[in-house]
């Protein structure tokens, strides 16, 4: 079939040079590739088909993916059925490998939450132990260690394999104070640089000083407490004078659930001795992370007490002394109970018969002779008197009542 000419199609004729062959039209071979619009439609339909796969438990369209094993399900009943059939927990494995191209914001959030929960769990280990329990564990380790107590044992010595914070808590408890430690990441924990060295038995405490209107507040990172102890007066800047009152805010430790809570007003422990070593001044007190001592002028302290702006609470009783007192009371109670059980019973009120019996034998000689002739028959319960005894009894009756 001849091809149509441009003129027949209404197109202008192309000029042709003289002697050149007539132009020819080439027809491109047929191709199976669809137009661009059709190819994009086909790609979107294939992606939708990949997303709308079927549920693993039924033939419905899947809508959910198991975080643990990536099994696709369509509903909550199918998800529960999948967990029961495959013994799947449905919790994402935080240690499972995730390719970088598949790592999303949700994956990052899950990893962060898992690491944070692990950190908090590690930080909370050992916080419930008391100083007495740590000391008792040390004594128990010494007993198990054989002769000499072994390394890290011995009474009155902190366990060598305890953590740094447990050793610090034990050392503070050994000087008669108590401390509550916060989880890692808290600002007060970051500020605290207190430390305890079990080898040199050196205790350093971070001490905060709040001067109010007297001077700017200050924090001393490492104040020596053991073996040589610093005084609070030596931490005061020059020029404040000597008539000062050092007070520590009242705090109830977490493990003292039986202690009365602090009042609503500002409460302090009794004033600390500024000239005494810290190892002595802090006895009977409690604080969070490290002590923060408030410094008052003596007149301002007295005025605040009189007006009721602050109250003074008693020092905390040492758990060791309390245990010894309770042990002493229990021992005394046991001794009193033993004494009461071994004591003889109180005598009953004397009767007439017992009173006469206490005087001894008062019978006459004749009655004694007559008693020798008595014949008592105990078989039937009757008493048979001899003729001589019956005659004497009759004479006595006649004398008393007459003939």
UniProtKB/TrEMBL annotation:
Region Disordered: start-end pairs: 1-46, 139-160, 320-385
Domain HIT-type: 55-88
Sorted UniProt keywords: Isopeptide bond, Metal-binding, Phosphoprotein, Ribosome biogenesis, Ubl conjugation, Zinc, Zinc-finger
Residue stretches of biased makeup (Low complexity): 31-46, 338-361
Metal-binding in keyword set: yes
Compositionally skewed regions (Basic and acidic residues) per UniProt: 320-337
PROSITE patterns listed in its UniProt record: ZF_HIT
Function recorded in the entry: Required for box C/D snoRNAs accumulation involved in snoRNA processing, snoRNA transport to the nucleolus and ribosome biogenesis.
Family indicated by similarity: Belongs to the BCD1 family.
The protein's name in its UniProt record: Box C/D snoRNA protein 1
Organism annotation: Vanrija humicola (Yeast)
